[in-house]
From TrEMBL:
<dbReference type="InterPro" id="IPR016163">
    <property type="entry name" value="Ald_DH_C"/>
</dbReference>
<protein>
    <submittedName>
        <fullName>Aldehyde dehydrogenase family protein</fullName>
    </submittedName>
</protein>
<feature type="domain" description="Aldehyde dehydrogenase">
    <location>
        <begin position="25"/>
        <end position="487"/>
    </location>
</feature>
<dbReference type="InterPro" id="IPR016162">
    <property type="entry name" value="Ald_DH_N"/>
</dbReference>
<dbReference type="GO" id="GO:0004030">
    <property type="term" value="F:aldehyde dehydrogenase [NAD(P)+] activity"/>
</dbReference>
<dbReference type="Pfam" id="PF00171">
    <property type="entry name" value="Aldedh"/>
</dbReference>
<keyword id="KW-0560">Oxidoreductase</keyword>
<dbReference type="InterPro" id="IPR016161">
    <property type="entry name" value="Ald_DH/histidinol_DH"/>
</dbReference>
<comment type="similarity">
    <text>Belongs to the aldehyde dehydrogenase family.</text>
</comment>
<dbReference type="InterPro" id="IPR015590">
    <property type="entry name" value="Aldehyde_DH_dom"/>
</dbReference>
<dbReference type="InterPro" id="IPR016160">
    <property type="entry name" value="Ald_DH_CS_CYS"/>
</dbReference>
């Protein structure tokens, strides 16, 4: 029987860019190494695209948009191609899952279900949705007819992160393509392989050349060139708040292109003493922070537990921590894999040290793991006696580190939860319906979970308040980012 390790040994990663329907190296011929965080193995060389490649890809996308080879197709025709794209994603699911795991270190079981499954579902959903979105007629006097129609914005740039390479790409490209735009996607240099393969699959599904282009490369080179490009009409970005601010500045100093950002988070998970199911709250708190190695912008990294139940809660939590020890990502039983690279590993270890020196009490983890593999692994880490002034309670760690804070008054917990520049996700656990509604309203976050965490569906928007970004991915609201509203006023008689 062929194992995932056998399949991994046979992988020959193609790191060339995808422009106008063809695989090409960067014009400069520069490349960079692609190393797997699982064991440090070299997966291959990747094209290091820069401004010259951006110019070529944007020109191809513009030509495709202007001749309407895609935008001119009916919504039903675009639907057929996107649904076929989703079907092929699932057909090649094992290949995509393996590339995803090798590239960024997540467990293969989740690459197959969450990443491939979620990406294919997203592409299919927007394909199915586009021929069901109606335009409007305004309530004008009988002597006039005013049409309100949606039109594609044109050339869309998408810059996505390394933690969910396929899923984040799909959240951007699916609504943009469904609406009739042409797209230039820049995946993270840390995990470019699945985005490049997706472009080939889209072409096989019937997407015309030039409509979907993928440029691997560094943010300061290819990413900045896209943000500054005068012929890009819109840019969607998911990543850090620091880079998101730069993207918006570049959009403003170039052609004032639309800039939509989904940025960092420091999500608060508030567990009250009247929590209806303490075991469920513990499992959600532990499972959600350690899922994807803690490399999720919406991870509930700040856990507020009411003082009267804190000791009982921590006892249950510590009993679960060992089940999240990092293990071989190519083993289907593994639930926590490798940190994406050495840089992020050092960042996470630096925050753990800051927690120690800052006065927090380390209850579990705190060390690098599986060092003999040559990969990058961190033990699931839990700090108690954290207060909101500590670095680990203020800054996004993006690793498997949970900070536990206590409270006696839920209003104080809400105040602390909101005392952050971020506002992505939050949660409250309580049996009191009034408290649940009042707390949910008071929490300044784009999504508030009640008596669960990570409840999610493509039908609901994803995004945040404050410095967690603007705009929303997912749901029909995503079309707002990639379409223009046009009024056509017609005089009758």
């Amino acid at each position: 029987m062929t194992t995932w390790h056998d399949k991994a040994a046979a992988v020959q990663a193609d790191g060339r860019a995808f422009i106008n329907g063809e695989r090409v190296w960067a014009k400069s011929e520069q490349q960079f190494e692609n190393l797997s965080p699982i064991d440090g193995r070299k997966l291959g060389m990747v094209a290091r695209c820069d401004g010259a490649d951006v110019d070529i890809a944007v020109a191809a996308a513009r030509a495709a948009f202007e001749d309407r080879r895609w935008a001119g197709k009916s919504p039903a025709q675009r639907k057929r191609v996107l649904v076929r794209f989703a079907e092929l994603m699932q057909k090649y699911g094992a290949e995509l899952a393996l590339l995803e795991t090798l590239d960024m270190g997540k467990p293969i079981k989740y690459s197959q279900t969450v990443d491939v499954g979620g990406a294919a579902n997203c592409i299919r959903w927007y394909g199915e949705a586009i021929d069901k979105v109606y335009d409007e007629i305004a309530p004008t006097p009988d002597s006039n007819l005013a049409l309100i129609t949606r039109e594609p914005v044109g050339v869309v740039a998408a810059v996505v992160p390394w933690n969910y390479p396929m899923l984040m790409a799909s959240w951007k490209i699916a609504p943009a393509l469904a609406a009739g735009n042409s797209v230039v996607l820049k995946p993270s240099e840390k995990s470019p392989l699945t985005a490049l393969r997706m472009a080939e699959i889209a072409l096989e599904a019937g997407l015309p050349p030039g409509v979907f282009n993928v440029l691997p490369g560094y943010g300061a080179e290819a990413g900045s060139a896209l943000a500054l490009h005068m012929d890009v009409d819109c840019i969607g970005f998911t990543g850090s708040t620091r880079v998101g601010k730069q993207i918006m500045q570049m959009a403003g100093q170039s052609n004032l292109k639309r800039a939509w950002t989904e940025l960092g988070g420091k999500s608060a998970n508030i567990v009250c003493a009247d929590c209806p199911n303490l075991d469920a709250a513990v499992e959600a708190a532990i499972g959600s922070i350690f899922f994807n190695q803690g490399e999720s912008c919406n991870a509930p990294s700040r856990l507020f537990v009411e003082e009267s139940i804190k000791e009982r809660f921590l006892e249950k939590a510590l009993a679960l921590v060992p089940s999240y020890q990092p293990a071989d990502p190519l083993d289907e039983n593994t639930v926590m894999g490798a940190i994406v690279d050495a840089t992020q590993l050092n960042t996470v270890m630096g925050y753990i040290e800051a927690g120690r020196t800052g006065g927090a009490r380390l209850l579990a983890g705190g060390k690098q793991a599986r060092t003999e593999t040559g990969g990058y692994y961190v033990e699931p880490t839990l700090f108690d006696q954290v207060d909101s002034s500590m670095t680990i309670a203020r800054e996004e760690i993006f690793g498997p580190v949970l900070s536990v804070l206590s409270f006696t008054d839920v209003q104080d917990a809400v105040r602390q939860a909101n005392a952050t520049p971020y506002g992505l996700h939050a949660a409250v656990w309580t049996s009191d319906l009034s408290k649940a509604i009042q707390t949910s309203r008071a929490l300044r976050a784009g999504t508030v979970h009640v008596n669960q965490y990570d409840g999610d569906d493509i039908t609901v928007p994803f995004g945040g308040y404050k410095q967690s970004g603007n705009g929303r991915d997912k749901s029909l609201h995503a079309f707002d980012k990639y379409t223009e509203l046009k009024t056509t006023w017609i005089q009758i008689g």
